[in-house]
Amino acid sequence: MAVSVKGRTAIITGAGSGINLAFAKLLVENGCNIVIADLALRPEAKVLVDKHTSGPVRAVFQQTDVTDWIQLERMFEVAEREFGTIDIVCPGAGIYEPHWTNFWRPPGSTASKDSRDSGRYALVDINITHPIRVTQLAIAHFQKHREDGRLKHIIHISSIAGQNESFSAPIYVATKHAINGLVRSLAKLERIGIRVTAVAPGVIKTPLWTDHPEKIKMVIDSSDAWVTPEEVGEVMLAMVQQDQVSEIIGDRSGRGTQYKVKGGTIIEVSKTAREVKQFNDEGPGNRPGNTVSDIEAVENENWELLSQKGWGLSKL
């Protein structure tokens, strides 16, 4: 069954760049209004918003710190005021273990901005606490507007890290495992017309990597294939418009394996797409788009940090 996004409205956090921006562009191109909630807009996102400030399809920017729950509530208020009801919510904002919130650079170390007395890791707040809270707010909004009878969607951004281990990024990996658990645990919401799903991208060429030289050195272009934000966005659009997704990204002809989309579905997006099974899954493996050939470049740095006298103590 195909359900067009035309005439509908979406909220996307983190859509100022990367995967979420690619998804936002596709939604607008297909007639869906959007609210972009982010700290700021990169130039390419500003072009999108400026182009659609008015007209039959609109894009609205709401400056939002996703670690602030009041600001998360406000983005829903803005979306309701601008468009009435919301149909699609993507709590997509996320970070990939930068030095300033990092397992191997704990609170109290020079690089960390996680305060020793705050009791919080920004990485956890952004990558899992914010998606949990946005999911709650989305469900509350959908319940308030059940009279329209439309199937509602909450689509999360997981990762192949949600199945893998990574010595270089333990907190990031933990948050993506948590996203998978959240999505599967909410599968039964489809009984009341709310479908909760996720995509699990491989190695994506976004600012999450390209703006961080300490991370991008793990990727060797001659042996590792980048997955593009647009490829992930294509799968996300298919998941909110169709009940099946093809393993061939961007293909709508029915070639290849077709994966059923329902509540709890997680689709891995490397250079192809496949469903991630809850049990006995084969794992991401070495499919093109899933590999980083020089991960030791970062792991060795972590071993050096760990060898420092007093690592992890409150005063370093």
From TrEMBL:
UniProt-recorded Gene Ontology molecular function terms: oxidoreductase activity, acting on the CH-OH group of donors, NAD or NADP as acceptor
InterPro entries on file: NAD(P)-bd_dom_sf, Sc_DH/Rdtase_CS, SDR_fam
Domain of life: Eukaryota
Pfam families hit by this protein: adh_short
Gene3D superfamilies: NAD(P)-binding Rossmann-like Domain (3.40.50.720)
Keywords: NADP, Oxidoreductase
Record-level GO cellular component terms: cytoplasm
Residue runs in coiled coils: none
Similarity remark: Belongs to the short-chain dehydrogenases/reductases (SDR) family.
Protein name: 15-hydroxyprostaglandin dehydrogenase [NAD(+)]
Origin species: Penicillium frequentans
